[in-house]
Amino acid sequence: MKSMKNLVLTVNSNRVSLPNIVMESLEANKHEPLDWLDYPYGDNYALAPDACRFLQALIRRSPGATVLEFGAGISTLVLAHSTVCGSLCATSQGAPMVVSIEASHQISRVVEGRLNEAGLSSTVKLNCLPIKLKLIAGRLLYFYSITIDKLEQLAPIDLVIVDGPPGHLGREASLYICMPYIKPGGILLLDDADRVPLEQVWLQNWKAAFGDAINIWVLKEFERYLAVVQIEDPKTCPKIMPWLFMADVRRIWSRFRRVGLRELLAPNPMKGPP
User: Fold this and answer.
1) What's the rounded mean pLDDT across residues 205-209?
2) Beta pairing partners, 100
3) Residue 121 half-sphere exposure toward CB, CA atoms < 13 A
4) 3-state DSSP helix/strand/coil percent for the chain, to nearest 5?
5) Number of neighbours of residue 134 by Cβ within 10 angstroms
């Protein structure tokens, strides 16, 4: 049994094999300006500045891409601004299409206000969807109540950005839900990949579930680490792991005893740490 400290070492650490667009964005990341952004320093929910610069560089290099974001906030403003900047470049592919999913009405209103102030409201489709407890890929997990119809409309998705739900509710469901709708070679970015046991265990579970159908890198040069998951075969069904389901049941039972049935089934995303 590997210790939690070493979990991150089991993912692919060969930087040379990173997707080209990620390598290019990492190089450009150092020179990406953020002076246009009123960054909320001290906000633990916000995407870290170095990750914002990387995301800005990545979107500018993704003309015509379909981008799905889970967890709106400062990252949504970066996506909107980068989409506009990218569309100014002469390209037949057009600007990226960005859809952002958020559970908190409070955060959604703030983000909408910031987008309107900056004249960027037309660049992002912001959806406020509740977080629900679901049976997903043989697991009991929390996630946004996005429908299959919505995912089918977006498919094939080029880039998925996972910065929500809040960590105490979990983000592991994101890949299980989105995998069939991401194009081959598409990318999922998972923020806060330094957290033990949260993100590091989710990455381990993803690799166990999908095997060679995905490649995973953890970029440790970022303040909170950033995981890059590249999809090789989106048609791969996740391996069912009954022992994880039993662990989910124990975790859900423990949560029920702490918060009660209402909060268990429809949690408030603002109750708890990011």
Assistant:
1) 96
2) 69, 126
3) 9
4) 45, 20, 35
5) 16
- C-alpha 25 chain-centroid distance: 17
Cα-based distances in Å from 55 to 61, 196, 258: 10, 24, 37
pLDDT digits (tens, 9 = 90+) for 95-150: 578 999 999 999 999 999 999 998 888 889 999 999 999 999 999 999 999 999 99
Residue 187 · residue 179 · CB < 8 Å: no
Q: How far is the CA of 91 from the CAs of 35, 84, 88, 158, 167, in angstroms?
A: 26, 13, 9, 17, 38
Query: How far, in Å, are 212, 220, 232, 256 from residue 163 at the CA level?
Result: 24, 17, 22, 25
- Domains of the chain are 4-98+105-265 (3.40.50.150)
Angstrom CA distances, 187 to 201, 228, 249, 257, stand at 19, 7, 30, 37
